[in-house]
């Protein structure tokens, strides 16, 4: 295990491991180590003391070693550290990601976060049942409204009333989010990398109305019914900004432990649009860590109140 290592240190460590035939790294990985390497930690008490004394926030574990260090991993998780598994074989030897998951890299080595599952199988099934029931009912009830919005957009803005964009979902998997098109970017680069704000000047009054009432997000009910999203959860973001925010804000990547949502705890507290990403991250992870079906119902009811007050959700 290592914490706060620089890219150069990580590369040197991996090179030493490969040269000496080391299959994995971690506390207790070797009985003897050259003097220039990090000290060896062989017990949970030693690890806990080292994490606290050095203010460790991130722990790297070489692939295949997690099962051998369950006790030690529980210690660092309990101290609030982020856990990442890194493949020391390099990009060429690493298997291709499955299920659309986006590969992440540290110093050229593929890695992935080791996140604890926030929901059990039973609670996940309950949340999914709520998503299907509510999104299905809303799609039926809001059908005339969806059709009206689409027709007005077609008449005022031209063809292409549905906007499709790639977003990052649960476990880093990519999916296509659906919205009513309220803005036409100059090109695909602008669409992928330009941060949207509420007072965008290049949109029509009707499109501004759709945004202010969040009606532009009604097509996302189809994403919920399909299982791409949930009714309640962290808002999905574009890959460009996920990469940027994951490097800048601690624990941002942990938002992807659950399905992203149409609304969430951060949104009902006014954190949407051009607001603090750090605060959003804090609210999103607090929602995940304290999840309950009752909390989802309360957030949905408060979202309705936000929509009626025209404050968005």
TrEMBL record:
A Pfam family this protein belongs to? Answer: Bac_transf
The residue ranges crossing the membrane are 129-153
Please verify whether the record's keywords include Nucleus: no
Domain Bacterial sugar transferase: where?
127-308
> What UniProt keywords apply to this chain's record, in alphabetical order?
Membrane, Transferase, Transmembrane, Transmembrane helix
Q: Which family does it belong to?
A: Belongs to the bacterial sugar transferase family.
Protein's name in the database = Putative CPS biosynthesis glycosyltransferase
């Amino acid at each position: 295990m290592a914490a706060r290592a620089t890219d150069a240190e990580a590369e040197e460590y991996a090179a030493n491991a490969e040269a000496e035939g080391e299959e994995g790294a971690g506390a207790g990985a070797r009985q003897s180590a050259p003097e220039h390497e990090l000290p060896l930690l062989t017990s949970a008490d030693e690890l806990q003391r080292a994490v606290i004394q050095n203010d460790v926030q991130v722990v790297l574990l070489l692939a295949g070693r997690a099962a051998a260090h369950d006790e030690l991993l529980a210690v660092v998780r309990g101290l609030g550290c982020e856990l990442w598994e890194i493949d020391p074989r390099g990009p060429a030897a690493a298997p291709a990601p499955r299920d659309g998951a986006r590969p992440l890299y540290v110093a050229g080595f593929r890695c992935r976060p080791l996140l604890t599952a926030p929901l059990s199988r039973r609670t996940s099934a309950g949340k999914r049942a709520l998503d299907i029931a509510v999104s299905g009912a809303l799609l039926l009830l809001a059908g005339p409204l969806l059709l009206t919005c689409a027709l007005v957009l077609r008449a005022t803005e031209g063809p292409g009333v549905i906007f499709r964009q790639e977003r990052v979902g649960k476990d880093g998997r990519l999916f296509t989010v659906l919205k009513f098109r309220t803005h036409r970017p100059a090109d695909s680069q602008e669409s992928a990398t330009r941060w949207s704000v509420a007072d965008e000047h290049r949109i029509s009054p009707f499109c501004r109305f759709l945004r202010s009432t969040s009606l532009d997000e009604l097509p996302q009910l189809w994403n919920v019914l399909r299982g791409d999203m949930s009714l309640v959860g962290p808002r999905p973001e574009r890959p460009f900004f996920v990469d940027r925010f994951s490097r800048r804000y601690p624990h941002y990547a942990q938002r992807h432990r659950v399905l992203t949502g149409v609304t969430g705890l951060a949104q009902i507290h006014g954190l949407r649009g051009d607001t603090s990403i750090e605060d959003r991250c804090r609210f999103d992870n607090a929602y995940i860590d304290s999840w309950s079906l009752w909390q989802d119902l309360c957030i949905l009811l408060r979202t309705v109140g936000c929509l009626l007050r025209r404050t968005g959700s």
